[in-house]
Give the backbone structure.
Amino acid sequence: MFESLQSQPADKILELIQMYRDDPRADKVDLGVGVYKDATGLTPIMRAVKAAEHQLWETQDSKVYTGLAGDPAFGDAMVDLVLGSAVPRANVAAAATPGGTGAVRQAFELIQMARADARVFVSDPTWPNHLSMLAYLDIEMVPYRYFDTETRGVDFEGMIADLKTAKKGDVVLLHGCCHNPTGANLNATEWDAVIAVLLETGATPMIDIAYQGFGEGLNEDAAATRKVAASVPECIIAASCSKNFGIYRERTGVLMVVSSDSKAQGLNQGTLAYLNRQNFSFPPDHGARLVTMILTDDALRADWQAELEDVRQSMLGLRTQLASELQRLSGSDRFGFLAQHRGMFSRIGTTPEMVAKLREDYGIYMVGDSRMNIAGLNVQTVPILAKAIVDAGI
C-alpha cells in the first residue's frame, strides 16, 4: 500500500540546520533556528525549572494518567497567566496540549468540527506551520495583508481592509505578541481597531501567543489577548510554554476557548477533552506540572520572572546594538525598524537570492524569506552580521 505515498517537501529550517552544521567556517552565524540562545550559544534550562524538577523528583509518587484535558491546576495557572482577570474563569475551557503547535492543531480541528465551511484568515506572512496544518486539514485559508516590505512595519490599512471581508463563521488568526516571522507588532490603538472589525463582521478571533514575556513584558505582552477576549463573544487562544519557560522538548501548551457564559464553557470543555482523546488521549504532564509548580509558588515564580526579564532585555540589547551598528556602517537609518521590532524574530526584508548570498559569501544563515532569529546573535557576532548586510548591498 505504501507505494502510493509521495515524497513530502523537506522542512526548510531543518535543511538550513544541516547546511550550517556542514559549513566548516569558524565565523559562521546561525540565525535560522527559532530557539532562544544565550551569549554562549546555549539554550539553558531556567533556574526555576531546575528547582521545580528537583522538587518534583523528590515528591512525585506516581506517573499515572492525568485527565483528558490535563491537570486542571495547569489549566487554571495558564488561564491566569494569559488572561489574568480579563474574563471570568468559569467562562474559559482549557486543555493541555503537546506544545503550542498541538494547541494550534487542536484549535483548527475544533473550528472544523464547529463549522465545516469556516475560512481562516491568516497574516501574510505567518508561521509556516499555520499554513501547513490548514492545508493538511483542507481548511480554506484567506491571507490578509500584514507586513510592509518598504517600512518593515505593519501594513495596517491593508490589514483592516482585508479583515473587513471576513464574515460570521470565519476565523481571524492573530499573533498575540512578537509576530513570527516579522517581529512587527500592532500598537494598542491598532488592536482596538481590529477588535472593532471583529465585532462588525462577527468573525471569531483565534490568538496564537507563543512568546509571552519576550516582547514588552509578561503582562504587557498579554494585554492585547486580554482585551480581545474581554471584547468579543467567543475567542480561541493557543498558548505555548516552550519559549518563556525554555522547555521546548517537554512539549507544553494549552488551548483555551473563551465563551460568553459558563453554560457554553461546559460544552467547549467537553469538546476539547474529546479532541484530545481522538488525537493522543492524555496530554504530556511533565512540562505542564513544572509550569504549574512555578506559577503557583511565589519564590519560584519570582525567580522565573526575573530570569525571563533578563532574556527579554538581552534580546532588546542585541536589537539596539544591531540597529546602531548598521546605522554606523551604512550611514543610513533604514535599519532602525530592528530596534522597534519585538520578540525573537525580525524580517530584514530582502530577496531569497540575497539571503543565499549572505549564506554563501559570509556564512550568515537565515530563513529564505529573510527572517532572522535575533536570539541567535551575541555582542561579538552583531558586528559580523552588520558588516555582511552592508557589504552585500542589502
Notes: The longest helix spans residues 298-330.
